[in-house]
Design goal:
It is built from 20 helices and no strands. By secondary structure, the chain is mostly helical. The radius of gyration is 29 Å and the shape is elongated. Belongs to the inorganic phosphate transporter (PiT) (TC 2.A.20) family.
């Protein structure tokens, strides 16, 4: 994509005002957190705290550049959202999802991978493991983002934790003890979820978009062809009328013109007139053409099917909030209450979408379809952003929260509180990463794998949000990247436009992500352990 196109404008100008503003905001919030964090950690191990903060913010920055860019690639690629609009949604919903609904995933990331009881390690060695994992994952994500590869931040952070843990185990005892330090059964469970992620994303997306294409898009195509044929009939009617009129003498022309005027008054002034009331052959034939046009009912699919799909999507998004996100707010809703709220939300969305479809009747069919699915995709993008924040920002904040807890208490706890300021700081870093380095991944997901339209983008995002949120509910750190790429491929299969050649380097990047992050983390741990 050219750098001056709407989807990437503003991302590549190093001295533009938005770039300066984002850089200033990121540096400012990071310095504020550093100042606050010194008191929070009781000024323990100041240098380690500063380095850990830099590594954590760097990791969040690269999550934004790869994972968030991947998440919004379909919306930007379909032309539904601009980069600035995607930034606004990311800033609100990504952070909200992480704060409200990300607890279980954070727990799995920071405590479910390494068995601390396998060997006797000091608290600071645990800190070095988490710092090494953050740095290694961030470096790998930066490398992948620059090449436009959407890779998994979950793969990256877990690979980093495993690589650093194996290195520590080898230093403390032997390779056998090192292997015992890692909970391989947990890795196996997560690996299964990685395999299922793109498959489930692809299956759900294929099923949903196939129905949309069959019942709506193809119906619209047939309606457009019929309307085009009627326009041809009307042009021919006008030409024939003009030719016949020119053959009349002056008296006949005056008489026929008067008939035409009377017919025009009937057509414009009455809705329930009959063809028998018309005097001129021209208006009788024009009436027949208009009747054919009305029988086509070009907007029927938009009025009948789109509201149903929108209602189903609204029910899924509201279920994500009620059963997952808002659960931690202890609102006192029973399961029955939740289902009733879902029903009300779905009914409201159905009515609003139906009315919107009726207001578009008579306009361009292509424009009406684009507008309706664009609105729907905006809401699914927000829902997916919430899901993504609940799942993947934990890849940065989980290890960092563990580091803060050790620096503050001097011991390794089973749980660690996540300070609000830390979440806000990481959220700013995440959005800044999307702005500065996200364009290549957006290009890959939004354009290069398959052609995107708001209808297909809506299907991909809704499918991915559903799968991601279900996984987050069960506390599994699945890869939203794999899910969404699978969903995009499902769209491509329906359209028969999948760029399988591009999937080869992406699939290779998926395979080497975990070992690459592990090797980088092993090197980082060796350096940190040697220096401190």
């Amino acid at each position: 994509m050219a750098l001056n196109t709407p989807t990437t404008r503003g991302l590549s100008l190093p001295f533009s005002w938005p770039n300066i503003a984002f850089a200033t905001l990121l540096i400012g919030i990071s310095l504020w957190f550093l100042f606050w964090g010194l008191d929070y950690t009781h000024h323990n191990n100041v240098m380690i705290f500063v380095l850990a903060t830099v590594f954590g913010v760097f990791m969040a920055f690269n999550i934004g550049g790869n994972d968030v860019a991947n998440s919004f690639g379909t919306s930007v690629g379909a032309g539904t959202l601009t980069i600035k609009q995607a930034l606004a949604i990311a800033a609100i919903f990504e952070v909200s999802g992480a704060v409200i609904a990300g607890g279980e995933v954070t727990d799995t990331i920071r405590s479910g991978i390494v068995d601390l009881g396998a060997v006797d390690i000091r608290p600071m060695q645990f800190v070095y493991i988490m710092m090494s994992a953050l740095l290694a994952a961030a470096l790998w994500l930066l490398f992948a983002s620059k090449r436009g590869w959407p890779v998994s931040t979950t793969h990256s952070i877990i690979g980093g934790i495993v690589g650093a843990s194996l290195t520590l185990g080898t230093v403390l005892s032997s390779s056998g003890s090192a292997l015992a330090l890692v909970q391989w059964n947990q890795i196996g469970t997560i690996a299964i979820s990685w395999i299922l992620s793109p498959v489930l994303g692809g299956l759900v997306s294929y099923a949903l978009f196939y129905q949309i294409k069959h019942h709506i898009l193809r119906y619209n195509e047939r309606a457009k062809e019929q309307l085009q044929s009627l326009r041809g009939e009307r042009r021919k009617l006008n030409e024939d009328h003009k030719t016949a009129f020119e053959r009349l003498n002056e008296l006949q022309k005056i008489s026929y013109t008067n008939m035409m005027v009377r017919d025009a008054q009937i057509v414009l002034g009455e809705e329930d007139y009959t063809p028998d009331e018309l005097e001129s052959e021209y208006y009788r034939k024009l009436h027949e053409i208009r009747k054919k046009r009305d029988n086509i009912a070009a907007h029927r699919a938009l009025q009948n099917w789109v509201p149903l799909i929108a209602a189903a999507g609204a029910a899924i998004i509201s279920a994500m909030l009620l059963f997952k996100g808002l659960k931690h707010m202890h609102l006192g809703f029973t399961t029955l209450h939740n289902y009733l709220i879902m029903g009300m939300v779905a009914a409201t969305v159905w009515m609003a979408t139906f009315i919107f479809a009726k207001t578009l009747k008579g306009g361009s069919l292509d424009r009406s379809t684009f507008l309706m699915f664009s609105w729907m995709q905006v809401f699914t993008a927000a829902g997916f952003a919430f899901s993504h924040g609940a799942n993947d920002i934990a890849n940065a904040i989980g290890p960092f929260a563990a580091i803060l807890d050790v620096l503050r208490t001097g011991s390794i706890g089973s749980e660690a509180a996540i300070p609000t300021l830390a979440m806000v700081t990481f959220g700013v870093a995440l959005v800044a990463g999307l702005w500065f380095i996200g364009k290549d991944v957006i290009q890959t997901v939004g354009h290069n794998l398959t052609t995107m339209h708001p209808a297909s983008g809506f299907a991909a995002e809704l499918s991915a949000a559903t799968v991601v949120m279900l996984a987050s509910t069960f506390g599994l750190p699945v890869s939203s990247t794999h899910i969404l790429i699978g969903a995009v491929l499902g769209i491509g299969l329906v359209n028969r436009q999948t760029n399988w050649g591009l999937m080869k380097p992406i699939a290779m990047a998926w395979v080497i992500t975990l070992p690459a992050a592990g090797l980088l983390a092993a090197l980082s741990f060796t350096i940190l352990n040697g220096l401190f």
